[in-house]
Amino acid sequence: MTRVRLIQLGIVGAVIAVLELLCRAGVIDRFTMIPPSEMLLALGNVVTSAPWFWSDLSYTLGNLAAAIALSVLGGFLIGLVVHAVPRLRRVLDPIFTAYYSIPTFVLYPLLIVVFGIGPASLIVLGALFGIVAMIVATVTAIDRIPRVLMKVARVGRLGPIRTALLMKLPAASPHLMTGLRLAVAYSVIGIIAGEFILSTQGIGRRLALAYNNFDNKTMYALLVLILAFAIAVNAALGAIEQALHRRWYRA
Amino acid sequence: MTAPARLADYVLLAAGLWLGWMLLFQWAGPEALSPPGATFARAGELLTSAPFWAHVMATGLAFGLGCVVALIGGLLLGLALGAHRLSGQVGEPILSSLYSIPKITLYPVILLVFGLGISAKVAFGALHGIFPVALFTIGALKNTSPALVKTARVLRLSPVETARTVLLPAALPEIITGLRIGLSATLLGTLIGELFASDQGIGFILIRAMEAHKVTDIMALTLLLFAFAAAANMLLLAVERRTHRR
Q1: Within 10 A of B208 (CB to CB), how many other CB atoms are there?
Q2: Closest partner residue to B108 among A92, A103, A211, by Cβ?
Q3: DSSP conformation letters of A14-40
Q4: How far is B177 from chain A (nearest CA, A)?
Q5: Which residue of B31, B101, B198, B214 to mutate against A (max A Cβ within 10 Å)?
Q6: Are residues A27 and A47 in the same domain?
Q7: Which of A185, A243, B157, B186 has its CA at 20 to 30 Å from residue B128's CA atom?
Q8: Nearest chain A alpha carbon to B203
Q9: Residues near A130 by beta carbon (within 8 Å), at least 6 away in sequence
Q10: Domain that holds residue A3
Q11: What's the CA gap between A86 and A72, in Å, rounded?
């Protein structure tokens, strides 16, 4: 383990310890926050004994998987088309730059009106959140493929399909991975937020319910679960992304 | 690219969006969507009504304060972490994982800590904006040419002088990118804050229109928000391009 990792662990540990002390000492009252150790215990309780836990978890994860698949595959395909048609790219460029400055959540009411309350509107919200990151990353990734590789492919007389699979895809992989990581992160945000705002099931919904019922234990348990999940996924994808970038740009 | 060609592109984009909207309207029906004409008319009505502007002021105040907190906090955090190599290496991954979490889940905690009212909205807006500003600032400082930093050291500038006269000007373009993204994230946070626990503001009238199933109102508000966000973004983008060119 490197020094940087150790310091990071130390900082996170210290923050948790300080929160624990402040809560135990009563500086932070129990209606505002429960000690982190109790959050973990409550999470254990929720996982083992809450009757709704597994069905709501699978609802959320299922919608999330669908949203990620839609945004990553859709974004990749749209990215290919956009890159292939320069005119289209020029026309759409203002949308891509402005997209993440627009509060996409305001579309959720419309999605509910169109698709009804249920998985479809959540999945579309999550996918809408993620897809543009993937489109932009795909276009960048193709732009960054070194020209020399295409020459190598021609010298090696590779056909178009083998050129795409053996040369273009690996060379584009670092930036595609960046897009994938962003698309996943945005989809998580979209799905959880959609559930939190208005939904009939799901972990985000349970979190909102627990808050409305002043059930702090369940609320913090689910909060810890969601945050840990988001951070772990982001860190894992980030590690793959960095390994790919290193392989292509420093070797 | 020539100006007429760019104009043609924008016209094409607007026509495409309008066509897409009409097709979607045909498909989904008036129950779900309102047609472009009626939506623009309603947006115009809103813009000339006094109660609407009271809500705009409420949102604007929370948004403005949130921006101030996010920008100053993000810049200070970014400068502190970005100027020192090890603290940057340690801090950046922590900040980027904080940036990637669904912050909406923290909203109950914000409400419990700050109570109902404007301070919760400001805090929630700032919470969204502070991380992108800090991350872009760190990135900008990391990309600053080492020669500049060495020159500052040779000239024996104090840390504050180095930050003010060397690092900030060199990193300005990227920092402005961070500000642009931070501002939009803050707007998002403020609006989400208003969706849940608020009695005034754009987010509040949006959720009220949603509960009453007033489709034209929802669409008109969405349109106005889009227009505002896109305009603010274009303005900052123009500033960004100018600093890049220098």
Answers
A1: 12
A2: A211
A3: HHHHHHHHHHHHTSS-TTT---HHHHH
A4: 11
A5: B101
A6: no
A7: A243
A8: A106
A9: A67, A68, A71, A72, A75, A182, A183, A184, A185, A186, A187, A190
A10: 1-33
A11: 22
- pLDDT exceeds cutoff 90 at A226: yes
Beta strands in chain A (DSSP E): none
Point out the residue among B101, B105, B221 whose CB comes nearest to the CB of A207.
B105
Residues whose CB is less than 8 angstroms from the CB of residue A144 and which lie 6 or more positions away in sequence, other chains included: A171, A172, A175
Cβ proximity of B108 and A221 under 8 Å: no
Distance CA A72, CA A79 (A): 10
Q: Above 80 in pLDDT, residue B196?
A: no
Instruction: Kindly identify which residue of chain A lies nearest to residue B89, measuring between CA atoms.
Output: A4
In a shared domain, residues A106 and A28: no
Of B105, B215, B230, the CB nearest to A227: B105
Of the candidates B133, B129, B108, the one whose C-alpha atom is nearest the C-alpha of residue B120 is B108
Pick among A110, A124, A180 to test the B interface (most B CBs inside 10 A): A110
ipTM value, please give it. Answer: 0.77
Distance CA A129, CA A132 (A): 7
Say yes or no: A19 and A60 in one domain. no
Site of tokens 């590690």: A239
Q: What is the pTM of this model?
A: 0.84
Q: Which of A140, A115, A135, A81 is nearest to A194 (CA)?
A: A115
A130 and A207 inside one domain: yes
Instruction: Report how many domains make up chain B.
Output: 1
Return the residue matching tokens 């600093």.
B243
The verdict on a CB contact (< 8 Å) between B108 and A106 is no
Angle (CA) A229 A235 A239, round 5°: 150
What angle do the packed helices A119-143 and A169-197 form, to 10 degrees?
150
Over residues B150-177, mean pLDDT? 84
CA atoms within 13 A on the CB side of B76: 5
| DSSP 8-state code for residue A201 | S
Examine the domain organization and report whether A4 and A65 are in the same domain. Answer: no
CATH code for position B143? 1.10.3720.10
Q: Is residue B115 part of a domain?
A: yes
**Once rounded to an integer, what is the mean pLDDT over residues A77-91?**
90
Q: How far apart are CA A2 and CA A13, in angstroms?
A: 17
- Subunit contact B104:A192, Cβ cutoff 8 A: yes
